[in-house]
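User: Second chain of the day. Same drill as before.
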Amino acid sequence: MPHEPQPQSPDELDAEAVRTWSSLALAALGRAREDIDAINVYPVADADTGTNLYLTAESADRALDDAFTKVTEGTAPASLAEAVRAWAHGALVGARGNSGTILAQLLRGVADVLGAEPEAPGTAETGSGTPGTGERGAGALLAQALTRAAEEAYAAVSHPVEGTMLTVAGAAARAGEAAGAAAGTAADVARAAYDGARAALAETPGQLAALGRAGVVDAGGCGLVAVLGALWQTLSGQEPAAEPVRGRAVPVPQPADPCAQEDEGPAYEVIYLLEASEAAVGELRERLDGLGDSLVVVGGDGLWNVHVHVDDPGAAVEAGVVAGRPYRIRITHFGDERRRGRGERAQRAVVAVVPGEGLAGLCGEAGATAVLVRSGEVPAAPELLDAIRRAHAREVVLLPGGAELRAAAAAAAEQARAEGVRVAVIPTRSAVQGLAALAVHDPDGSFDEDVVAMTAAAGATRYGELAVAERQSFTSAGICQAGDVLGLIDGDVAVIGTDLAETAEAVLERMLGSGGELVTLVLGPEVADALAERLEAYVQHGHLAVDTVTYRGGRYSAPLLIGVE
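Assistant: Same format as last time:
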């Protein structure tokens, strides 16, 4: 149940104030989401900054609610430190996009100050053992928190650019510090920070050429103004002014060549959570900085959120593997978003769940939003819903790629429909069925006809997979031993062998026994190209009319996937 914001004293910083701030910030971002999406032109005009900020704030708010729920089941009220740490952690694990990742680091900076352990009674600057109490303690503490937030956000971005969300955060911090130094209350500091942020936001078109040409303010900065307005409302009880969206467009010198185009930049956005040491993350930053741009790495204490724009998403994930354990990996292709133009929602998009980096890249090239599945991990409904939102379309076709994802896909589709998105779930049970569906996808045709054609293509594709048995077990083909090669057809073990190539041939022969026109082979990361050549020759020798196409599945892919259409 949504938290009902509670009125606060002008100089009160406690757990309830954090909870109210979170609720009001989420509501403000929800109201401004579409407007912010519409002015999103930097660093990529992909029309999702407002959505990313909202989803990040939603994750933070949910974590905060969970923290309060756990506390209320006990005997003690939540402390300020517990609340603000939970809030920041929720933002970290749920951060979306460049702007959401920076917002997560801003909240972490706030938590570093407000979440610090209190000093012993009578020794703190405020004369109390509770941070934020005392004659002027809350105002000074909040000013310090806003300053730390801006500093940490700048440090998290590899190449900070002025005229962005960072600029707005810095201006808010300086204005807050001035109010705190003048012995202002927490409400005074919040108002000063809010006003400073609004003024800085209005100036962003004059600092960043892309904004000036478009005549808009920075989208991420606009979202931060909404968050700071919620802070002031929390402490003052007053409604903030309407968050500026377009602001004042300051003339910017145009390029000498009016036909000159800005470099569109890398083709993919890669985001993942990473468990790694601080030293390893330092090396990761250097490696990713050489692969792409818009690099933001936030977090600490062993858990990080990594965001980067690259042309080689596999290399970006591989860098994370070297540094530690990456998970919740999301890869998004920018091509379609750039072609749509600023702020325009696509009519139709495809979301595909795939087990392999290579497959994710392949889907991205086809214009689909890919959800990458690591070995043994099954995406939950919120992750699928996030992908549907990131697709930023009025109509979405969802390819879950596995029977175990049916319930999660249905739940995500239901929620997306409640948000006004038309969603169809095609019950694909393998990535090769998803590839078959993508091959006939017609974004310009009617939605119903497209869904029927994609469903028919997926249903007409038999699927096979080769895996290695981890232990002795009973299967539909008999008893297998650890290390045996298992050949599965339509989800059931059909062949047990000891050699990958021979087992693959046996599976192909059975699958082609009932006919077929096209064989699709998806090779795992450790499978040699020679296997594909052998299987192609095998098909050509026994089935002259059947064509064969081969792809690399990449990391996390099974040793071999087979599709027969």
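Residues 119-136, 246-263, 336-343 have pLDDT under 50 and may be disordered.

User: Great, on to the next one.
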